[in-house]
TrEMBL record, chains A, B:
SMART domains: HTH_MARR (SM00347). InterPro entries: HTH_MarR-typ, WH-like_DNA-bd_sf, WH_DNA-bd_sf. Residues 1-154 form the HTH marR-type domain. It comes from the Bacteria. The lineage of its organism: Bacteria, Pseudomonadati, Pseudomonadota, Gammaproteobacteria, Oceanospirillales. GO terms for molecular function: DNA binding; DNA-binding transcription factor activity. Keywords: DNA-binding, Transcription, Transcription regulation. This is MarR family transcriptional regulator.
Length: 159, 159
DNA sequence: AAAATTTAGTTGACAATTCAACCTTTAGCG
DNA sequence: CGCTAAAGGTTGAATTGTCAACTAAATTTT
């Protein structure tokens, strides 16, 4: 019993009539790559990269977080985030402390310097990347984009 | 002169009222990561990874391509793609030949074995990942998702 | 409450990616 | 034509990411 109509076949990679240009994940990957590359340009001159940036941004917006939380939101395997965090600590961007309530948990906090860097990046990228990407988008369209992406995310999150 | 309404501020990372959960690129990155992770599960057992998969898929759908074209569509820096391609050649998935018309260009072609692997992956991932991700999506919604992503891509592509 | 399991994080060995520097071949230009 | 620049690709060194194995703290079982 299939819940999909014949028309959906075009979007299905295993179908004969499949067209990669109509496959949303192809575009998700390319948009992500393009956005990352654009960010890189801004980050490089200040000795940052996307990995560090993601962690810093999450810390700025979500406040102090454990390594696991960072792995979840900033996207990455635990060992990867661990190493990024300690590189960032060596660079003076974050502090790492054991949680009071749970001895296993390492809480990462942005330093003053870290906050300054985030503000600087936001300042430089906002006009350069954000407004360019959404040129011609109305508010409902941005909202719609977000909604659809969130739904994809939720669907993929479910085991 | 600004073309954006006050309401758009919420989506703008540099704005005071910015909410990272309403920032589309945050979701683009997370969706991409989740999709990749899901694909990885299928690819790992057959000795593939996402990088190889992207290259193979592009070759399957676009036909023989130069290294630069692969770098563009499969997303990656030139040296990265070069190395992936030669790893794939050593694994018997592709052939590499100099272009007839331009001595600088290396044309990459999927072998029989390569095609077989792509078909196999498509077969295994289609039901597992694609249909799960788009559960509850109507055809117009998938179409809309694609449109919005393409627009973002085009906007970001423009210098 | 002791033993077993799970959760959170770290580390070292290995694999993959990236940056720079380089080599060819092609395209432009006076 | 001959010179210079640009395009396409490759390679080695350095960086970064990943897997597997491990430690320690907390939770669950019994």
């Amino acid at each position: 019993m299939t819940t999909h109509s014949k028309k959906l076949e075009k979007y299905n990679p295993a179908s004969e009539s499949f067209d990669i240009k109509e496959f949303p994940f192809y575009w998700v990957a390319r948009v992500n790559a393009l956005y990352s590359r654009e960010m890189e340009k801004t980050l490089k001159p200040m000795g940052m990269d996307i990995a560090r940036w993601r962690v810093a941004a999450i810390l700025q917006f979500n406040g102090p977080s454990s390594i696991s939380e960072l792995a979840l939101h900033a996207i990455g395997k635990l060992p990867t985030i661990t190493k990024i965090v300690y590189r960032m600590r060596d660079a003076g961007l974050v502090e790492v402390n054991a949680s009071e309530s749970d001895g296993r948990v390492a809480i990462v906090t942005l330093t003053e310097e870290g906050h300054k860097q985030v503000d600087m990046v936001l300042d430089m990228t906002t006009k350069k990347v954000f407004s360019r990407a959404f040129k011609g988008f109305s508010e409902p369209q941005i909202k719609k984009t977000n909604e659809l992406l969130k739904r994809l995310f939720v669907n993929l999150s479910a085991d």
